[in-house]
Amino acid sequence: MGSRVVIIGAGFGGLSCARALVNKSIDVLLLDKNNYHLFTPLLYQVASSLLDPSDIAYPVRAVFRRAKNVRFQMATVTEIDLQARLVKTQDGALIPYDYLVIATGSVTNYFGMHSLASIAHELKDIPVLPAFAPKLGEYARWQLERRGIEVRLHTRVLDVSGDAVRLSNGETIETKTLIWAAGVKASELVTVPPLPRTRAGRIEVDEFLRAKGHEQVFVIGDLAAFFQDGTELPMLARPAMQEGAHVAENILRLEHHQSLIPFRYRDPGIMATMGRNSAVAQLKRISLTGFIGWLAWLLLHLILLIGFRNRFAVLLSWAWEYIFYDRPVRLIARAKGRS
Questions:
Q1: Could you read off the pLDDT of 63-108 as tens digits, one per residue?
Q2: CA distance 234 to 219
Q3: Residues β-bridged to residue 108
Q4: Beta partners for 165?
């Protein structure tokens, strides 16, 4: 077996990197605080009682059960010693590495309103409608409003109390249920010495996705501040997956003493759904709306789900709800900090 690659994080980027290294002449150790991969794009369907939590979570060990060179360890990383090339975990373990891939993703961004953490239900997802062409954005807004959803644009949340939300236009909305999906920020990770970060908190990387000043350390996904054509890549699953596969290829090239290949993101387009028979999709020069866009959205998410069982369960739940207008999962959960 060749050098050791330690990958921190079993999200889209970390999992993509590990899968690209399966059955290669290299030792791979994948670390994550959870023993499952969570398909976050469908997390809102769990919150709205359409899917069961197990439908969008897949055991990491099951992904690599036939991979002889990939091992998974459930552990919480507390610190990385970049000079000694050691990863420190919460249980005191010291894990050496030859190559390190940091893919710890992002966390919910409360934009300085710390009281939200104990009040709101959080959905770690990203609103992407502003990234669509204006015509598609207007269509999405029209679809939401015709379903009885009130859309407030150019309005910020200034403060949140237990039963009210205060807006930048001076209005106060009384509510006992608050769902926060306003965005995410890069996760915190202690490195010695500290890695340089952008103002947004993402780690600065070069054209090969290496942390600046550390040739054996790669950063991918939401944590990486990668700029292409003057624009920072968004915190989405697709860039993370492409970055993970690309870093795996470059690690193998380093093992064979070959030159590295700069990363270039290939944008397949973006999609968003507003509900039954309604979605918008922007696929390069092709724009889809309505039922066709919705079918394209369903197909894409089924393909990206890991595991045949999960795909079948999700498809069955979707079909049941579509035919009978009945959400099969009935869960009652309380926001943190409420009695």
A1: 999 999 999 999 999 999 999 999 999 999 999 999 999 999 999 8
A2: 14
A3: 184
A4: 160, 173
The share of the chain scoring above pLDDT 90, in percent, equals 78
Cα 273–Cα 278–Cα 280 angle in degrees, nearest 5: 55
Domain range list for the chain = 4-33+75-108+183-255
Length of the chain: 339
pLDDT at 32: 97
At residue 21, what is the residue type?
L
Q: Indicate if the pLDDT at residue 125 is higher than 60.
A: no
* Per-residue model confidence as pLDDT tens digits over 306-334: 999 999 999 999 999 999 988 877 655 56
Q: Which CATH superfamily is domain 4-33+75-108+183-255 in?
A: FAD/NAD(P)-binding domain (3.50.50.60)
Rounded Cα–Cα distance for residues 155 and 99 (Å): 45
Rounded-to-integer distance, Cα 30 and Cα 107, Å: 20
Give the whole-angstrom CA distance, residue 220 versus residue 226: 9
| 252: pLDDT strictly greater than 50 | yes
Evaluate whether 135 touches 128 at the Cβ level (below 8 Å): no
Give the pLDDT score at 339.
46
Nearest residue to 19 (alpha-carbon basis) of 297, 304, 310, 312: 304
Separation of alpha carbons 116 and 113, rounded Å: 6
Contact 205, 212 (CB under 8 A): yes
Cα angle vertex 152, ends 148, 155, to 5°? Answer: 160
Residue 195 pLDDT grade (very low, low, confident, very high; cuts 50, 70, 90): very high
CA atoms within 13 A on the CB side of 259: 3
- The residues near 233 (Cβ < 8 Å, ≥ 6 apart) are 224, 226, 227, 239, 265
Question: CA 132, CA 90: separation in Å to the nearest integer?
Answer: 42
Cα(319)–Cα(56) distance, integer angstroms: 16
